[in-house]
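PROTEIN DESIGN WORKSHEET
SECTION A - STRUCTURE
LENGTH: 291
TOKENS:
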């Protein structure tokens, strides 16, 4: 069998994914084709033909995506900032909306005085996305990342090893519980930046099959109001940050006010600001440790 035109193959895939209720059928069909052909999505049209083996592989991937297996589990890749991450079953797939928190964190690090090594802590690191993207952007930083789940931690370790092999400053991974009141006491008062994308979805929320059937539930659900992990995070962040240090906590769009209120009630934070995502929904709260 000879190579065939890619365009009708893509059109067929888009229709299959659309019928299956996949939210972005064209984008996903193109991402999968780019994955199979080994090119960037933006260069797909420069590869207008697809060979027989690649076609079989592509159709099998499209069929799995139509069964609502996450795109990133099929390609094995996700992204944060300027880095690639490997992801798969057992770890939360980093989301584009977290890029906004990442951008805030990076800007905040710019404000760190140049008389010391910036200390960064990523609480609930999952694949290591935020910690490793920050370490890549700021090779001068001493980055710590905390994760409770062993499966997630092994993905973080793979990503951390790869980034270090590619020349980034190694980060320190801690297999630990962010609700432990004695966590990282050796860093008390030393952190310039704390970021957290914890489990925050209220129990019982309705979720797409990609999320509820494939993201680990420990990564998703944060109790009846979504704040079970965030509540103990607030005193921990107050303890870790040095005066003038900044923190950002991602949260469910239903409880931005709740997270801001927890930070205000703690009494150690100022400049508590709610930040929306690109859809205009409240997505993370940032705050500065009082001097
Ligand atoms: C929403 S995911 C975020 C992962 C990553 N920060 C990101 O943005 O892609 C939350 C992560 O927190 C971890 N986690 C849940 N409870 C935890 C706890 N008590 N201590 C440490 N990590 C926890 C989960 O296993 C999961 O990997």
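SECTION B - SEQUENCE
RESIDUE ASSIGNMENT:
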């Amino acid at each position: 069998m000879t190579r065939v035109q890619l365009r009708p193959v893509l059109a067929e895939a888009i229709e299959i994914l659309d019928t299956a209720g996949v939210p972005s059928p064209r984008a996903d069909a193109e991402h999968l084709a780019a994955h199979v052909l080994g090119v960037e999505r933006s260069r797909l049209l420069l590869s207008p033909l697809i060979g027989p083996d690649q076609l079989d592989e592509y159709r099998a991937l499209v069929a799995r995506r139509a069964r609502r297996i996450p795109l990133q589990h099929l390609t094995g890749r996700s992204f944060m900032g300027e880095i690639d991450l490997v992801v798969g079953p057992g770890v939360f797939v980093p989301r584009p909306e977290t890029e906004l928190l990442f951008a805030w964190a990076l800007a905040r690090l710019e404000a760190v005085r140049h008389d010391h090594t910036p200390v960064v802590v990523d609480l609930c690191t999952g694949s290591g996305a935020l910690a490793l993207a920050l370490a890549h952007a700021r090779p001068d930083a001493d980055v710590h990342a905390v994760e409770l789940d062993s499966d997630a931690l092994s993905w973080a370790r793979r990503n951390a090893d790869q980034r270090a092999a590619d020349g980034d400053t190694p980060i320190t991974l801690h297999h630990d519980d962010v609700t432990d009141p004695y966590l990282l006491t050796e860093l008390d008062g030393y952190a310039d930046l704390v970021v957290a994308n914890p489990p925050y979805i209220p129990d019982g929320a309705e979720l797409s099959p990609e999320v509820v059937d494939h993201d680990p539930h420990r990564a998703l659900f944060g109790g009846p109001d979504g704040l079970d992990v965030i509540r103990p995070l607030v005193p921990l962040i107050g303890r870790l940050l040095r005066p003038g240090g900044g923190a950002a906590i991602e949260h469910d769009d239903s409880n931005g006010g709740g997270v801001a209120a927890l930070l205000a009630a703690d009494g150690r934070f100022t400049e508590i600001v709610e930040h929306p995502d690109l859809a205009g929904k409240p997505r993370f709260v940032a705050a500065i440790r009082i001097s």
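SECTION C - NOTES
Residues 119 and 142 are 5 Å apart (CA to CA).
The pocket of S-adenosylmethionine is lined by residues 92, 94, 98, 124-127, 129-130, 146-149, 152, 177-179, 197-199, 216, 218-219, 229 (CB under 6 Å).
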